[in-house]
Every structure is written in structure tokens, then in C-alpha cells.
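Propose amino acids for all 131 sites.
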């Protein structure tokens, strides 16, 4: 009797890349914290709108990188089968580790979206009368 092994899809090949990216999660999260502290210090110091915008964009980039690393760790935690199989992904999210990383990804995604909506300073446009 021949036993056929299920072929791993192309998406499951991302597993090793996700392992590498996820290994940097701690450093990327620290970078995001530093960028947030810099933004808060500039707000407290009364920096110009351009400086606040630059610091806000830097914080957004750092948050995005940390979010991507957290998503990679989540995918690695869920396992190779979860790349292809919706039910395996759902079962893996129900484990303690899967739930922890799902919550972390959701927390970072919410923080990034809130920052994008309210945290990045807008540079006022020149009015028509000034032209």
C-alpha cells in the first residue's frame, strides 16, 4: 500500500521566512516604543508641526514593522498546516499560544490604526488667499 504525503503549498514555504522575521519581534517592538517616546517628547516640548509629522510617520513605520513581525510569529505559532487549511488555523488559534499571538496582533493593529487616524500631525495647506 502506497502512502501519499500531502504536498506543502507555496504559502507554507513562507514558514521559514516567517521564522526569521518573527525572531526580530522584540527588537522591532522596542524600536516602536522608542519612536513613541520620541513622539510624546516632541509633543510635550512644543515642537513644530513638521517635526511632529516626521515623528508620527516614524512611529507609524516602526509600528508597521513590529506588526509584520508579530503576524509572522503568529503564523509560525499556528503551524505549517494553518497556512493552507482554514480549520487547522482556527484550531491553532484556540490554543493558549495561538490566542496570545492573535491578541498581540490585534492589539498592535488597533494601535497602528488609531495612531494613523489621530496621531499623525497634519500640515496645514496654504490657503487660496495666500497664493
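Proposal:
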Amino acid at each position: 500500500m502506497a502512502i501519499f504525503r500531502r504536498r506543502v503549498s507555496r504559502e507554507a514555504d513562507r514558514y521559514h521566512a516567517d521564522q526569521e522575521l518573527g525572531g526580530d519581534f522584540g527588537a522591532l517592538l522596542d524600536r516602536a516604543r522608542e519612536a513613541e517616546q520620541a513622539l510624546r517628547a516632541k509633543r510635550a516640548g512644543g515642537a513644530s508641526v513638521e517635526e511632529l509629522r516626521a515623528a508620527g510617520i516614524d512611529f507609524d513605520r516602526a509600528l508597521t514593522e513590529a506588526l509584520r513581525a508579530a503576524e509572522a510569529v503568529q503564523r509560525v505559532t499556528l503551524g505549517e498546516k494553518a497556512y493552507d487549511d482554514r480549520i487547522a488555523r482556527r484550531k491553532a488559534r484556540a490554543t493558549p499560544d495561538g490566542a496570545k499571538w492573535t491578541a498581540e496582533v490585534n492589539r498592535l493593529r488597533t494601535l497602528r490604526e488609531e495612531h494613523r487616524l489621530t496621531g499623525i500631525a497634519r500640515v496645514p495647506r496654504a490657503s487660496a488667499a495666500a497664493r
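Helices lie at 14-22, 25-44, 49-78, 86-93, 96-118. The chain has five helices and no strands.
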